Amino acid sequence: MEPAAASERLFFALWPDSALQGRLAAWTKLAAGNARPMRRENIHLTLAFLGTTDAALIAVLGECAHAVRFAPFALRLDRVGYWKHKRLIWCGPEDEAQALTALVAALRAALDNAGIRYDSKPFVSHVTLVRKASGLAAAPSWVPLAWDVRDFALVRSVPSEAGVRYEVMQRFPALAAF
Ligand code: 2AM
């Protein structure tokens, strides 16, 4: 880890394990063509985007996240899609998954209570796979993937020569007996 900065670019996310990241990255590489595939180790699903945040608030963010109670849940990445306005290819659940939207609502409520600012646009669950894409025409067919969600993470963006790198700072586990 780099030395502590005065501010950090932060977000909360579901972070796939290495096996799932590998499967997602393999499809992504085939689908990307000349576009920009997400690097395997950066693949995630954002729950709440905080943006540039005073590093002094990181402890408060940890308290907010620890207060969020949720049970482990299975998330099905049923489909891929293309957003022309953002030029990105994504995958995600077919319908909004109830357990996921409940987790996002609880996290956002905890942030609201603590007066922490985040991007409050409505949550649309998606895992970005390719940026600067022109469509899905060249993408291979999609095989749904199962994601066993057992925790979520506070993540920071770190600029690097190879582009931005995302670094998990802290993980917040689901409660088995919830
Ligand atoms: P995206 O992949 O759809 O662009 C880190 O930037 C993560 O936070 C990305 O997953 C990004 O989503 C998400 N994000 C959500 N709101 C954002 C915002 N206002 N600015 C930048 N990234 C945002």
Structure report:
It is built from three helices and ten strands. The chain has helices at 18-32, 58-66, 98-113; strands spanning 7-14, 36-37, 45-54, 73-77, 79-83, 88-92, 127-131, 145-149, 151-158, 165-173. Strands 3-1-9-10 form a four-stranded antiparallel beta sheet, with helices on one face. A four-stranded antiparallel beta sheet has the order 2-7-6-5. Strand 9 (151-158) and strand 10 form a beta hairpin. The chain is globular, with a radius of gyration of 16 Å. The model has no long low-confidence stretch (mean pLDDT 95). Bound molecules: adenosine-2'-monophosphate (2AM). Adenosine-2'-monophosphate is lined by residues 11, 46, 49, 119, 128.
> In DSSP terms, counting alpha (H) and pi (I) runs of 4 or more, how many helices?
3
Could you report the average pLDDT, rounded to the nearest whole number? 95
Q: In terms of structural class, how would the helical and strand content be classed?
A: alpha+beta
The largest beta-sheet arranges its strands as 3-1-9-10
Biggest sheet details:
4 strands, antiparallel
Q: Quick one: overall form? A: globular
Along the chain, the helix and strand elements come as: EHEEHEEEHEEEE
Helix content: 10-25%
Give the DSSP E fraction (strand runs of 2 or more residues). 25-35%
Bound molecules: adenosine-2'-monophosphate
User: In total, how many beta strands?
Assistant: 10
